[in-house]
Design goal:
By secondary structure, the protein is of the alpha+beta class. It has 2 domains: 119 residues, Fructose-1,6-Bisphosphatase, Chain A, domain 1 (2-Layer Sandwich); 114 residues, 3-Layer(aba) Sandwich (D-Maltodextrin-Binding Protein, domain 2). It has 7 helices and 14 strands. 45% of the residues are buried.
Length: 243
């Protein structure tokens, strides 16, 4: 994928909606991933961003974002990832996030812990919001909660050590899992944005919920991922501002 970026053809960018772009790299990457995963688990189906396969599995379904951070990729900003999660019925049991430019592979399986390039990883142990580095994603097409979001962003900017927006939710979640970020929140997300990363955070000792503290973060379009010590505060504040 890094080699594809060097010779990337801007003329082949397509638009799926307002500020929602797709490139031939997204589509080709997804095709190759699906081809290999079909060999690995022939009975599985796919929930894939670019829709190159609509096969649904009775039990197993892979949730795939072939290039999370497409805008970064197109613009030459070196933060983008491949995200692959595996659902066993409705339960996430496997997650892999590969951050391409740093050659970092984050992965986890249910009950097996979380890892980065073979080494165990854990969420941070920071318990003071003033010492915390937070991450979020800016809304780019759904502005229904923009005022509430900006109020929440103001609170985090004045209370936390810093706030970052990388442009790849999968990378944000992976960074929470390894302690680089202490908490992450975003709304208007899709299953392929969060499937793998949410499992990795949980297996690294973190807490993952929707904005109400429930479990509808995979298909509900909103997520909070945090270390265990800041989870209650983040849920309270996000819930207060984004209710």
């Amino acid at each position: 994928m890094k080699e594809e970026r060097k010779g990337f053809q801007v003329s082949m960018i397509e638009s799926k909606g307002l500020h929602d772009l797709v490139s031939y790299v997204d589509k080709e990457s997804e095709k190759q991933i699906i081809e290999q995963l079909t060999k690995l688990l022939p009975e599985s189906g796919f929930i894939a961003e670019e829709g190159t396969s609509t096969k649904k599995g009775e039990r197993y379904n892979w949730v795939i974002d072939p290039l999370d951070g497409t805008t970064n990729f197109i613009q030459g900003v070196p933060i983008y990832a491949v995200s692959i999660g595996l659902l066993d019925y409705d339960e996430l049991v496997l997650g892999v996030v590969y951050e391409v430019c740093l050659d970092e592979c984050f992965y986890a399986w249910k009950g097996g812990g979380a890892y980065l390039n073979g080494d165990p990883i854990f969420v941070s142990e920071r318990d003071d919001i003033h010492d915390a580095l937070l991450a979020t994603g800016f809304p780019y097409s759904n502005f229904d909660q923009l005022d509430e979001y900006l109020a929440l962003l103001k609170w985090t900017m004045t209370e936390a050590r810093g706030v970052r927006r990388l442009g790849s939710a999968a990378t944000d979640l992976a960074y929470v899992a390894c302690g680089r970020f202490d908490s992450f929140w975003e709304y208007d997300l899709k299953p392929w944005d969060v499937a793998a990363g949410s499992l990795i955070v949980k297996e690294a000792g973190g807490v993952v919920t929707d904005f109400s503290g429930g479990t509808k973060y995979l298909f509900g379009g909103e997520i909070i991922a945090s270390n265990a010590l800041l989870a209650s505060l983040m849920l309270e504040k996000v819930g207060n501002f984004m209710e």
